[in-house]
Amino acid sequence: MEPLASRIRPKSLKEFTGQEHLVGEGKPLNIAIAQKHLFSFILWGPPGSGKTTLAKIYAKSLNAKLYELSAVSAGKADIKKIVEDKAGEHPKLLFLDEVHRFNKAQQDFLLPYVETGELSLIGATTENPSFEVIPPLLSRCRVFVLNELSHEEMAKIIKRTGFKMDKKASDWLCAMANGDARQAIMMLENTKELYGAITVETLKDMLQSKFLRYDKKGDEHYNTISAFIKSMRASQPDAALYYLARMIDAGEDPKFIARRMVIFASEDIGLAHPTALVVANGVFRAVEIIGLPECAINLAHGVAYLCECKKDRSANDAYFKAAEDVKAYGNLPVPLKIRNAPTKLMKELEYGKDYEKYTKEDLLPEKLKGKRYLFPKK
User: Fold this and answer.
1) What pLDDT was estimated at residue 224?
2) Which stretches of 293-340 are DSSP H helices?
3) 99 and 124 inside one domain
């Protein structure tokens, strides 16, 4: 049977709940749907905020042929098949869920079809498209930001399911679901099927059955990435690889993990092993090109390497000490001898006078002479 979330999905903006800044009277998506304006856009927002529903409503308003793909499993062949499909007079709309999972090569392949108008793209993503979508493709799409659904909006959506429950149960579910309407509806459907009555107690029992997703905005996300970083910092590869596997298994974006590794290479390893940054960047590039599931091997390789490196946070600490002085003292005068002197007047004012390339003289501003920030490990 079709899932309840699909069965009660709104068919028009009148039935849609939330995102008033996009679909309210006079707002951009409302106008685009009313005027049947065909263009490519990206919907960026948290899970269950209405991205898929808005794509379907938009496609219906244009009488377009909607092709739905998930970037997790789709590839170039799927795009080519859609391009070659005969849609008659209907415009072709590609709804690409989790567009951030398409690697650069796949996005490059999609780009010319969007450029020529053979396909209009609706991308959906929970990740910042500035980081995840290649600039040429991003420049051809308008980005709409969806907000997490409010408690009141969630309550309205829950009411649409038709399930009977008291206000206490409804309030508990709204709080637990963190603005994810799809999650709340699935939770209700499964609770009803397993327990019959929907109460706070039966909802909690359902929660304990590990039904809920790994929430990229919740405590589990932050706890796991924290444990991952701290395990690498402590040079414990077994623990770090365990937390890596846990994140991959839960559906965490591998590029998010790789970015944290690049940061770690400079923040925690730094001068002790400068090539760690080269390796971490190499891992990020491999993740970007290869994608899951194979890029998990690249991540594991990088994690093991970073764990085994000696650690030295002195460059990181030195920067923040210098930044504190910048905030405390503002723009202190730069010593004359190291100022740039491109004009005659500047030279007359002794800019650059007596400058020596390899001087041992303190070149800090006068107020900070003798100050030290960097204390590298010997």
Assistant:
1) 85
2) 295-308, 314-329
3) yes
For the chain, what percent of residues have pLDDT higher than 90? 61
Instruction: Report how many domains make up the chain.
Output: 4
Q: Are 315 and 374 in contact (CB under 8 A)?
A: yes
Same-domain check for residues 65 and 92: yes
Using alpha carbons, select from 121, 108, 126 the residue that is nearest to residue 253: 126
Domain that holds residue 269: 219-308
Burial 100-119 (b: 16+ CB within 10 A, else e): bbbbeebbebbeebbeeeeb
- In Å, how far are 79, 225, 257, 273, 310 from 229, measured between CA atoms? 37, 6, 10, 17, 15
Residue 322 lies in a domain: no
pLDDT at 211: 42
Mean pLDDT, rounded, for 224-237: 93
Same domain? 42 vs 71: yes
Cα 306–Cα 312–Cα 318 angle in degrees, nearest 5: 130
The string over 14-35, giving b where at least 16 C-beta atoms fall within 10 Å of a residue's C-beta and e elsewhere, is eebbbbeebbeeeeebeebbee
Query: Do residues 255 and 161 share a domain?
Result: no
Q: Give the pLDDT confidence score for residue 281 in this predicted structure.
A: 96
43 with 140, same domain?
yes
Give the model confidence (pLDDT) of 78-108 as tens digits.
999 999 998 778 899 999 999 988 988 999 9
Residue 7 lies in a domain: no
Q: Answer yes or no: do 260 and 242 share one domain.
A: yes
| Beta strands 92-97 and 65-70, pairing class | parallel
